[in-house]
Specification:
- Two copies of one chain form a homodimer.
- Chain A is α+β, with helices and mostly antiparallel strands and 282 residues long.
- Chain A is built from nine helices and six strands.
- The longest helix of chain A has 21 residues, at 121-141.
- The relative contact order of chain A is 0.15.
- The A-B interface holds A 118-120, 123-124, 127-128, 153-154, 157-158, 160-162, 164-169, 171, 174-175, 178, 181, 185 and B 118-120, 123-124, 127-128, 153-154, 157-158, 160-162, 164-169, 171, 174-175, 178, 181, 185.
Chain lengths: 282, 282
């Protein structure tokens, strides 16, 4: 049987926002459903991973982990559920789209260069990540936002450090990204507790995590900085965010960089995995 | 005896261009000369290091190394000569001053934060740097520019990776710095061999190394990109650099970032250490 497949995203493609992960997860899930294969998300994650590494995680909703595995071919490199979305549903994410431009280097190719040439990556993989993964699973189980935030930001910085240590260096973050880092630090400092965490994937876009109770401090501050007319603040969710909040002091340069560099925001949160639909192309 | 001392730089201060190193090295050398202390540069480097770590190296001319030492207090952390300037005199440096703004964090305070919080720094200090130092001394002894260049750029990237892995992250390089990295890669690629190497200290300014025979390819390309009217191209040395060279293809974005971000260039080379003068304030 020949299959005709069309893949569409409602967010920027090849911009470091895991579009390949979402696409391959949806594709593998759709084919498994079509042929009524009795595969668990973990089994399917093994297949999806071959399209795009992080696709294995995207077969799950909620909070998912990805075990590295031990075999050379990666057959035991699969994803697993840490907790369903319902366990900690008030997690929110504000994505600051700093570039919708396609990347020079695909995330997969970049990661391979990093593994091959960085003098720090092996230490990261062997020593840094395993400890943090355990701590992160505990933070999710305990719904401990402060621990979640510290691990998220440290690990993002550690990953980008290894990218910068690649030969030639890979720079995913730009001056806009760094302004987002400074703004998150300033929001936490002004609030007197950790209300937000940032992370950057293979691109300059910031993903800012916060709990729904802190939406005013976090998303509200970014709306005040960026202005409410930017794409992404429309609709019920975006309009509910007040845009007249106070921008922390001393953030003039960072604010200006964010206004210049952020083209769009995406307000989202923890959700489900791929869904089966009855829509067909013909 | 009371001493009145005045310290001046002819290059930007506190901008990550080792102004503290130069100042403390000059100060320690001047005082030793004044009191006619029979101290070798290595002895003096132990004292200078307490003002600014890298000041210990600046007591030497030519190519200098800095051994970490093993004592907690750092009393055995001294500098040494790898080779005098006369050993490899045709080494040139073009400094692209990307910011003459004073830094938020001093290099010394930044380094202390990195040591305390980076999950990668210990691996850098124990595993990465010692091997590279040996290889670098060999490259200098052999006047092997290709090895020198590879070690210089990799170690710069490794250092900035550890800065980015600090909590909170320290970002010395900015979008202008990264454009300089890409331009150096493009110049090497267009020339078909390694003619230049970049390094960044605790600031966004690029230091581009090349041999005098390759001045047209390296400094000439940067002059063609930046325009010859920028501060630093005047004088005998700057005017000798042709500014009508070909900019490598595909470098439009990097060229634009460099034109926007570089405020001044400094053309220099390997030289001597602190010099005794008979000039006095009164």
């Amino acid at each position: 049987m020949k299959l005709k497949m069309v893949s569409e995203n409602n967010f920027p493609t090849a911009a470091g926002l895991a579009s390949s992960a979402a696409g391959f997860a949806a594709l593998v899930r759709a084919i498994a459903d079509l042929y009524q294969l009795p595969s668990s998300p973990t089994d399917l994650s093994r297949i999806a991973r071959q399209g795009s590494g992080s696709a294995c995680r995207s077969l799950f909703g909620g909070y998912a982990g990805w075990r590295m595995g031990e075999t050379e071919a990666g057959s035991d490199s699969t994803a697993y559920e840490v907790a369903p979305a319902s366990h900690w549903p008030d997690m929110r994410a504000l994505i600051l789209v700093a570039s919708a431009e396609k990347k020079d280097v695909s995330s997969t190719a970049g990661m391979q260069q990093t593994v091959a040439t960085s003098a720090l990556f092996e230490h990261r993989a062997k020593e840094v990540v395993p400890k943090r993964m355990k701590a992160m699973e505990k933070a999710v189980h305990d719904r401990d936002f402060e621990a979640f935030a510290a691990l998220t930001t440290k690990d993002s910085n550690n990953f980008h450090a290894c990218c910068a240590d690649t030969d030639p260096p890979i720079f995913y973050m730009n001056d806009t990204s760094r302004a987002a880092v400074r703004m998150c630090e300033a929001i936490n400092s002004a609030t007197g507790r950790t209300v937000c965490a940032y992370t950057f994937d293979a691109g300059p876009n910031a993903v800012v995590y916060y709990l729904s109770d802190d939406e005013v401090q976090v998303a509200g501050t970014f709306k005040a900085v960026l202005g409410g007319r930017l794409q992404g603040w429309e609709g019920k969710r975006g309009e509910a965010v007040p845009g007249d909040g106070k921008v922390p002091e001393g953030m003039e340069v960072a604010s200006e960089l964010l206004r210049k560099g952020v083209s769009r925001v995406i307000l989202t949160g923890v959700g489900g995995g791929p869904k089966k639909t009855e829509e067909h192309l013909c």
